[in-house]
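Handout, tutorial session.
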Amino acid sequence: MLGIEWLYWAIVLYIQQFTYLFSGRAKNSGSLKYSAIAGLFSHSSWFVANVYFISSLLDYRDAPAEIKALICLFYVTFTISGTVSAQWIALKYLETGSMRVGAK
């Protein structure tokens, strides 16, 4: 996996964590529709992210430990940025009424 594939993987990791956070929050809301849509996107992006992850593991299985550590740092950086930005957007703009976490 070289070049543009890394950019694609970064975007997919960001989206995967973004949708995963929304899926978790949706389960704690009062909206089944929100939960279903968030789950669909979360599980779809998880699958795509894992295709990239497995590909990178296979491509770099014999790489030095430093390269593997950089892959880990890459993964953690983009998943954390997806989670944090998704929570900020959810709290600031999206979660109102029955979509708010803890709504009955």
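The second record follows below. Compare its token runs with those of the first.
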Amino acid sequence: MKLRKRLLKYFLIALFVTFGLVYAIKQGGPATLRLYIESGIGNCIEIPIMCVSPEDKFHEAKLDSEFIVGLHEYQLDQIHIHTPEGFKVVKQKITMQYYKKKKDKTKGSTIYIVQKPVDFFVILFSDVTKNSIKNDYDFVSRVMNAKINRIMNLQDAFFVIMKGIFTPDLGEQASVRIVKVKVGKFNGFISYNYDPLGNYFDCNLLEEGGGYYKVYIKDKAKKLNLDDVVSIISTIRLTDKPAV
């Protein structure tokens, strides 16, 4: 019942937003549409990542076997991951935040994990994706490449809004970047920022022949770098049996 109520809430919000977007396009075209989105999400100065796209080249990180050996295996339901000492692991949900920072009840360094089945997004948003999006990797790639200053039509606006939903708190974003990664069975994107108050990593990963994983790492002690995070996500695996 809670899931049905949540989906109904999201549908009504999406319906309201769609009417607003259609009105914005009819009244003033792309420029008015961009202003409409900025009024709800924010602009590139306030939220830099909304005008940042992935770097052209894949990030070439070498897995650090010595670092991996020093990690601790953790099982959360059916998800196995090796994590550094001092990190709490939490199973999380994708919520409709529209990039508003919510109060984080979990203090200290934390790793949040979301897992969804194959083609979760292309099925959920079939009306939007049926003409141009073939699989979840295409969907996530379109989300990561979305930029407020490139909105020209309703589909562009949709993916900008999705980027706001996908992206968790990354600090003040003074040096925020997005890189493409390929590690083992995973292809995907890592948005990251080294902030004075902590290092933040938002990993959106697609498994070959498998589903979607989001691994959000909030490193308050500033111990991890990008290559460490790539080593951590290389340890993810899904099992048939949940944790006892």
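Points raised in discussion: The first strand starts at residue 72 and ends at 76.
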